[in-house]
Amino acid sequence: MLIHAPILAIAVPLLGAFSLLGLAYLSRTLRNIWACLISAFTSAMAVAVAIRAFTEGVVVYTLGAASPTESVTAGGFPIRIVLVVDGLGAFMGLIAALAGVVALVYYFQYLKEEEGKSLGLSLLLLLWAGILGLVYTGDLFNFFVFLEITSIAACALIGYRTWESRPPEAAFKTMAMYTLGGLLVLISVGILYGEYDALNIAYLSKAITGSLLDKLALGLLLGGLLMKAGAVPAHMWAPDAYGEAPATATIVLVANTQAAIYAILRVVFTLFGGALAAPGIGWLIASLGITTVLVAVLMAVVQRHLGRLVAYGAVSQLGYMLLAVGVGAVARGGFGEVALTGGIFHMINDAASVGLLFFVVGAVRRATGSVDLLSLGGLGHTLRWEAGFFLLGALALAGIPPLNGFASKFLIYESTFRASPILAALALLASILLLAVVVRAFQGAFLGPKVREASPAPRGMLVAMGILALVIVVFGLFPGFFIERIVSPAVQAVLTGREAYLAAVLGG
Amino acid sequence: MRIGSGEGFWGPIVWVILALGILAMGFAVWLQGRRTYKRGTEQEEPFLSGEKLSKGGGAVAGIHLYWGFAEALRPLLSRLVAFHSGFVGDYVGWLLVVLVVSLLVVMLS
Asked: Is pLDDT larger for residue B34 or for residue A292?
């Protein structure tokens, strides 16, 4: 069965999302058991795919062929839909698995039945399937399809609280942006298909010559994907979305945004990595990255809404990743490798720290009914675990040693300094400012005299927060262990793995 | 468990050992302090430049932390807040800006 792991990791949550709604009519217990089974199986498949990709190299799975390994026809043309998982795709699959599992653990005690628990679970699984499909597919049109699946599920989750005014508005804005971004990607796919009669990423990568149409396709792809990655100035949907979505969905939404950064890496280094590997594209991404960091951190300073404050913190971290990707694309080796190591490592670190912060925000909202810092205070008297988790997540987000955020930011700062000392200084300054912002949020919500009653979060929610806290501490204390085993294969797949990717799909 | 950047390295375990050493030194200094502290006396009152606290007391919410910092940056921050208008039309406009810049950079590369 393990040979079918790539497709099972996508198909099981996809079909499970719809079947779960049917089961929910029969019994809630049955629904919960079903959701746990789907979650456990999907995670196991994602881990199995990752182990294969890290140990054996690029994993190729062909749909509709006599054997899953037959990716090309007798004429040497890749006509079928393929899933191609290299080190980078496997790494992203692991992030998605972590996000999906903790979101589900948190979910069961977070939403009430009368708030449409079954529908939320279904959307969460759908989003999970979309992310896994996005990072595993080796077909450009399927990439667009999975992009749309993630967009639809994400927007439905963002606007989930229809009985409030702000979530549907945030969902509408996000949907408008995602639709336009998706349209840009679709036009780009259309241009490449019209030019080369193919949709297979490996085939296209080999065929692309760097013509004017190729450049147009790359520009459109970058425009759509940079928006989805939350790059300033097209970032404005992100704080709206993160700030209003249910806390349980936010970690998966963060993984979804990171999938856009994965897509930028795939487009810049694999799809257009042969004919259009220009440093100018790297500088564009790095410039947008540092702008994102600075603008998001400054906007976090003025936030009163705890959710939006954390949301701007999350956007700033996306800026660090874009900065690292940009520096990596400028250098393509040497300090570029260090930058990509930092940037890719920062993805999983960010998912853990931002996810933890959003989970605490959800617990605060559940306990007090408010996330307005002006009306909060002294919550540490009653929400002791939550206060500890918030402090840990906040310090990790700000990159305070010895937590995981520092390890990845250290690599980003050092490599960025080699590319441009000014960019490195600005990135460091923003990190210090972010520390001030999160300390202020911690002080405002958890310290001082008790101003209102609050009931601590149920055990299930605390367990989910505990898992993320453990990731933050363990990844922070042993960064070398994780970089060597799961980050380096992803970095090598980006920098030197293009030929292996092409050979695995096209043969030879 | 160190990680290297080519220019330097980061060893979290070494850092933790050093931090524990510094904490131990701080604890040793603390042990040398006066032992005349009494709970519930004026010793617990905050020292505000020798001024006496008003009877009504006062509280500074966490939101007011770094007030001076935010005030100093107000010209910049107010522009940034205005830039985040909340209008979806503006969002789309900025997406088009990113698109045009991306296309220009790619075309000129």
From this structure: A292
Q: In this predicted structure, what is the pLDDT of residue A111? A: 82
Q: H/E/C letters for each residue in A289-328?
A: HHHHHHHHHHHHHCCCEHHHHHHHHHHHHHHHHHHHHHHH
Number of H helices, E strands in chain B: 4, 2
Mean pLDDT of A364-372: 92
> Given pLDDT bands bounded at 50, 70 and 90, which one contains residue B59?
low
Place A508 in a pLDDT band, splitting at 50, 70 and 90. Answer: low
Predicted local distance difference test score (pLDDT) of residue B64: 74
Q: With beta carbons less than 8 A apart as the criterion, state whether A281 and A329 touch.
A: yes
As to burial, measured by CB atoms within 10 angstroms (0-12 exposed, 13-18 middle, 19+ buried), residue A196 is middle
**Burial (0-12, 13-18, 19+ Cβ within 10 Å), A331:** buried
Minimum-distance CB partner of B5 among A288, A338, A373: A338
User: Does a structural domain hold residue A260?
Assistant: no
- Per-position DSSP letters for A69-130, written without gaps between them: T--S-TTS---S-EEEE-HHHHHHHHHHHHHHHHHHHHHHHHS-GGGTHHHHHHHHHHHHHH
pLDDT of residue B60: 66
Asked whether residue A112 is assigned to any structural domain, the reply reads no
Cis peptide before A402 (omega within 30 of 0): yes
| CA pair distance A402, A395, nearest whole angstrom | 10
Quickly state the pLDDT bin for A79 (edges 50, 70, 90).
confident
For residues A463-478, one letter each, b for 16 or more C-beta atoms within 10 angstroms of the residue's C-beta and e for the rest, the string is ebbbbbbebbbebbbb
Of A79-88, A238-247, A467-476, B36-45, give the lowest mean pLDDT range: B36-45
Segment A188-228, tens digit of pLDDT: 999 999 999 999 999 999 999 999 999 999 999 999 999 99
User: Whole-angstrom Cα distance, residue A409 to residue A339?
Assistant: 9
Interface mutation target, options B71, B78, B79, B105, chain A, most CBs of A under 10 Å: B105
Looking at the structure of chain A, the number of domains it has is 1
Give yes or no for residue A85 having a pLDDT over 70: yes
On whether residue A225 sits in a domain, the answer given is no
Closest-CA distance, A189 to chain B, in angstroms, reads: 16
Which residues constitute the domain of residue A377? 278-477
- Residues in B touching A417 (Cβ below 8 Å): 7
Structure tokens at A480: 């070398």
Model pTM score: 0.94
* CA B75/CA B1 separation, integer angstroms: 45
Cα–Cα–Cα angle for A81, A86, A91, rounded to 5 degrees: 115
Residue with tokens 């160190």: B2
B15 contacts on A by Cβ (under 8 Å): 401-402
The shares of helix, strand and coil residues in chain A, as percent rounded to the nearest 5, are 80, 5, 20
Chain A residue at shortest CA distance from B17: A402
CB contact B79 to A (< 8 Å): no
Do the domain assignments include residue A329?
yes
